[in-house]
Amino acid sequence: MKFSKQHLYIIAGLLLITACKPEIKKPTPTHGTADFSRYISIGNSLTAGYADGGLYLAGQQNSYPSIIAKQMQSVGGGVFNQPLFSTEQANGSGYLQLTGFTAGGSPIITPVTTNLAIRAIEPVPGFGNVTLYTKYSGDIENYGVPGIKLEQITYAPLGNLNGYYERMLPGDFPTNTTPYLAFITAKPFTFFSNWLGNNDALLYATSGGAGDVLTDETVFAQLYGLLINTLTTPNANGITPKGVVATIPDVTSIPYFNTVTVGAIVAGVQKANPSVQGIYINALVSGTTYAPRLATANDLIVLTFPTSMIGTLVTTPYGQLPYGLTPYSPIDNQYVLDANEVALTREHVLSFNNTIRAAAASKGLAVFDAYTFLNNVKESGLIIDGLGLNSTFITGGIFSLDGVHLTPRGYAIVANEYIDAINAKYGSNIPLANVADYHGVLFP
Amino acid sequence: MRKLLLLLWLALPVCAFSQGFQVNLEGEKQIGMGHTGTGTLLDGASVFFNPGAVAMLPENYLQAGISPLVFQSTFNPYGTNLEYHTANKIATPFTFYGVWGPKNAIWKLGMAIYTPFGGLTDWGDNWAGKYALESLDLKTIYFQPTLSIKITDYLSIGGGFVYNHADIDLTQAIPLSNANGQDGQAHLNGTGKGYGWNAGVFFKTESGVTIGISHRSGVSTDFSGNAVFSVAPSVQPNFPQPNGFTSTVPLPATNSIGFGFYPNQKWIIAIDANFVAWNVYKALAFNYTTQSSALVNASFPRDYNDASSIRLGAQYKSSEKVAIRFGGGYATTAAPNGFVTPEVPDANRVYVTGGLGYKLANRLDLDASFEFEHLLPRTQTTIYTGLSGTYATNVYIPGISLSYHW
Q1: Which segment of A91-95, A267-271, A337-341, B312-316 scores lowest on mean pLDDT?
Q2: ipTM confidence score
Q3: What gap in Å lies between CA B232 and CA B184, rounded to an integer?
Q4: A/B interface, count of CB pairs below 8 Å
Q5: Per CATH, is B32-405 categorized as 2.40.160.60?
Q6: Each residue's pLDDT tens digit, A353-388
Q7: Interface membership of B81 toward A (CB under 8 Å)
Q8: Does residue A212 belong to the interface with chain B, where contact is any CB pair within 8 Å?
Q9: Considering only CB atoms, which chain A residues are within 8 Å of B173?
Q10: Predicted model pTM
C-alpha cells in the first residue's frame, strides 16, 4: 500500500515530538562582581539557626546562611561548614516542641530534654552559670553564635562566658582569650554576611528592660565600623571580600511581644471579676526610676509571662494582695516592656540601623533591610507560592515556638531576601530557594 | 491567656477553567483540518460544530472517536533555576455521533456525546506551587440530542439540548506540617451537572461557498461532592470531617462562524472563527457543608476575558480512498495577567494539525489525526497566591475515529 510508509513516518515523527518536555530559557548562572568561593556568615542566634528556644541539629541544618550557601553552589559557591551537633546529641541545647492544644485552644509547649549536647554547667563569679556544650573541631563557615552582641566582638573573655562560642574554639573553658572578631577573620574569605547587632537591643527588650542593658549608640557605631573595616580588608590572596549586612528588626515586630496582650489579660480577668479596671505594671518613668501604673495597649507583655499568676495572692508591705491587680502588687518588670522602654529600644534600633546602612554604603556592601521587611510582614503579611504568612505566633508560619527566632520556612524567606539583596548589588543571579520545601511550625 | 485563635488562612481549592479547558477535539476529520467544521459538511461531527448543517448531510452517520492527549506543562519559579513538570498522564477526550433521517426528508435527527471541557494536570505534591494546586482532573461529558431542518436547498437550521455530566477531582497541599514535616492535604471529589442548548444555521451560496454560524450556550455547572481534609491530628478539629462542598462553574458560551471553499473536486478549504464568552467567569467559589474558623467558604477572583480563535484547514483527496488533511490555528488567552493559575497555565496558543482519512470499505471511514499545540511561554505572578514564575506548555494529541455511513 502506498500510504503505509508515509503513515510510518508520521507516527515516528509524533513519537519523537512527544518525548520532549517544553523548555524554559533560564539566565546563565553568574556570580557577577562577587566571589562566593569562601562565604562566611557572621551573626547571632538567627545566623546559627536557633529556633524553638534552642540550638539543635535540625535548626542548624535550616539556618539561613546554609540555605544561601546551598543556593550559591551554582554560581561558584564553595564548601559551607557549620558547627553542627552530632546526630547522637542532635537536640543540642534542648528546644521547645508543640505537643497539643488545650480545650480552650491554647498551645501546649513542652521542652525536649533528651540527646542534649551539654557537657557542663560552670559557675562564673560575678557573671552566673555558663552552659558548656560538646566541642566542635571541624572547619567553620557559619560563625553564628547565639547570644552574642556586637558589643562583645573584641571582648577577649567571651570564649569563657558564651558556651556556643566556647564550643567553636580549640581551647577549653576558662582559658580562652580569642576575641570573636579575631576568630572569624583568621582564615581568608571572599564573601561574608553579617547580622550582628540584634542582641544589643533585643536582650534588653526580651528581659522586659530588667535583665540586660542597651548597647550605647556611640559604642555600637565604633564597633560596627571596626567590624566592617576588618571584614573588608584585603585578605592574604589580595582579594577584598564583598558582603551583605542586615539591619535590626523592630523588636515589636516579633510575636514574643505581640501574643500575650494587656487587652487579652484584662478581658480574661474581667470574665471572672467584672469590677477589675485593669492590670498594674511597674513602668519606667525616666532614667532608672520605675513607678506602678495601669497598663495600656502600648505596654508589651512577653510571651513567657505565666498569666496564671494574675490575681494570686502575694505578700507585699501592705499585706496579701492579688498579683497584678493593685499598684502595690504590680506585674514584675521582667515580664513587661513598658511604653517608655519600647520607645528607648526603638530609638536605639533606629540609631543602630543608621550606623549599619551608613557603614554598608561606605564600603559598597549589599543590605538586607530586615527592619523594613519584618515591619511589612507584621503590617500586611506575606503571600508566597500560595502560602499566606504573617507574624502571628504559631499559625503565622514564620516564627518558631519561642516567638523570636524563625521556622525553617521563615529562614528560607530570609535567605531569599539576602539573595535578592546580593544579586541586586553584585549583578549575580544566585537562584532563590523554594520556600515551599521548608516547613513551618510542626503540629503533632 | 496565651490563648490563640487558630485562624488558619487557607486558599482552598482554586480551580480554573480557561481556553485550555476547552478541549476542541470533536471529530478526527475536523481536527486534521485545524479543527474547522462550522461551515463545512464532513460527517456526523456537524452535530457539534453546527447543528444547522446536519440536515444538509448527504448520508446517515454512526461514528466514534478518541483523542488521547498529553498535556505537558513546565514551571520555572521566578528567580530560581528549578523546573517542575506535570506528570505524563493521558486524558481521553472522546466523541460519539449519530445522525439519522429518511432519504430525501427535509429533517434529520442527531445525537452527540462529546467532551468539550476538561483538564488533567498533575504537578505532584512536591512542587513550588503545591499550596495553590497539586492535581486536577476535570471531565465534562455533554449529551446533545439535536433536530435539524432543511428550509430550502440552500439553507438549513438546527438546534439541540445539552445535558452536561461532569466529574472533578482536585488536590491541594495545606500548609500545616505534621510532626514529620509533611503537609496536610485537601481533596475535593465530586460530580456536577448543567444544562444548555445550541443552534446553528448553514448556507450554500450560489458561488459554491458554504457558510455556517453556530451558537453553543453557556452551561452553568453545579458541582457537589466530598471534601476530605487530612491534617495533623492536633489541628484536625479545625477541619470538620466528614465534609462536602458545592461550587458553580459557568462554562462559557461559544459563537462560531465558518466558511467552506471547494476549488475543485479534490480540495476543501475551511476557515473558522470562534468567540468564547469567558467573561462570565468572574470568580470561583467553594461552599463547605460544615465550616469552622479555619475552614470558611471561599471565593477566588478570576476576572476572565472573552477569548477568540481563528482556524484554517484543508483537505486534499489524493485518491478515491485517501484524504490528506492539515491545518492550524491561533487562540487568545482568557486569563488576564495576574490570574494565570497552574490548573491551566493559560496563554495565547498556536497549533498545527494533520490528518489522514482512509476508506476501509464502501461505508466505513477510518480517520486519524494529530495535533500539536504550543502555549506561548508566559511569566506570571498570580495575584492572590503570589505564585510567580514562567509557564510553558505543549499538548500532544493523536486521535482516531471510525465512521459508518449510509
Answers
A1: A267-271
A2: 0.87
A3: 7
A4: 158
A5: yes
A6: 999 999 999 999 999 999 999 999 999 999 998 888
A7: yes
A8: no
A9: 436
A10: 0.90
